[in-house]
Write a structure and sequence with these properties.
CATH class of the largest domain: Alpha Beta
Mean pLDDT: 88
CATH architecture of the largest domain: 2-Layer Sandwich
Order of helices and strands: HHHHHHEHEHEEH
Shape: elongated
Length: about 220
């Protein structure tokens, strides 16, 4: 290869942060020749830092490539397991939905109250609970009483937060009770306060008998 072409390639590689010895090896020329060709090229701080890492760790480049390969494998495995899990569950039968709802109430439902109630941060879980109430307990939308728990630090966002839950649950805001404000303000400030939506509390009006029945269903699971 002609020297002008070699010199041009050496300078391109140097501008991309390659070390002098690496360039010399790639082009089969001496290190002193590469140094002469590229002596006016200044590397960026990040390129210098990378070269220093490679100098102290000859496997740096290969290790980085290995890490990326392993990361890709983990991502592919995670996606496959997620897809397999969705397929394993499939579409719930009425009986399976019934049992799943009892388990959810056992974990998250109000038990020391005289009405059926549930509280959570997750809108998907809240929708699942409402779906269970409708399909397995015969509860209509107009019997639902909705209230949002909001930290005092977000008092000025109350209307926005209520609108969020109203849209998520497809329940008009007219059906919402006044929000409950937690008096203790958090010391921690979140990076994305717009993602704060408080805690949704769902109660069922005139549901004392239903609550007693749910207690029986939970006891049925306990005895398995």
């Amino acid at each position: 290869m002609a020297k002008p072409l070699l010199r041009r390639r050496a300078r391109i590689l140097r501008k991309h942060g390659f070390g002098v010895k690496t360039i010399a090896h790639k082009l089969t020329v001496s290190s002193s020749t590469v140094s002469q060709w590229c002596k006016d090229i200044e590397l960026t701080p990040s390129q210098i830092a990378t070269l220093e890492k490679r100098q102290h760790d000859p496997y740096y480049g290969r290790r980085l490539a290995y890490v990326k390969i392993q990361q890709k494998k983990r991502q592919e495995k995670t996606l496959k397991l997620l897809t397999d899990g969705i397929r394993d569950v499939g579409k719930l039968t009425q009986r399976e939905l019934f049992i799943a709802g009892i388990s959810l109430y056992w974990a998250e439902g109000f038990k020391k109250d005289n009405q059926v109630g549930f509280a959570n941060l997750d809108p998907i879980m809240a929708k699942f609970f409402i779906n269970w109430l409708q399909k397995c307990c015969g509860v209509t939308h107009n019997r639902l009483k909705i209230r949002v728990g909001i930290n005092e630090a977000y008092r000025d966002k109350a209307e926005i937060i209520e609108s969020y839950w109203s849209n998520e649950l497809s329940i008009p805001r007219a059906q919402f009770q006044k929000p409950f404000f937690q008096k203790v303000q958090w010391k921690k400030l979140y990076d994305h306060p717009e993602k704060y939506h408080g805690v949704i509390r769902i109660r069922v009006a005139k549901s004392t008998d239903l609550l007693r029945k749910i207690h029986g269903w939970i006891e049925g699971l306990r005895q398995q």
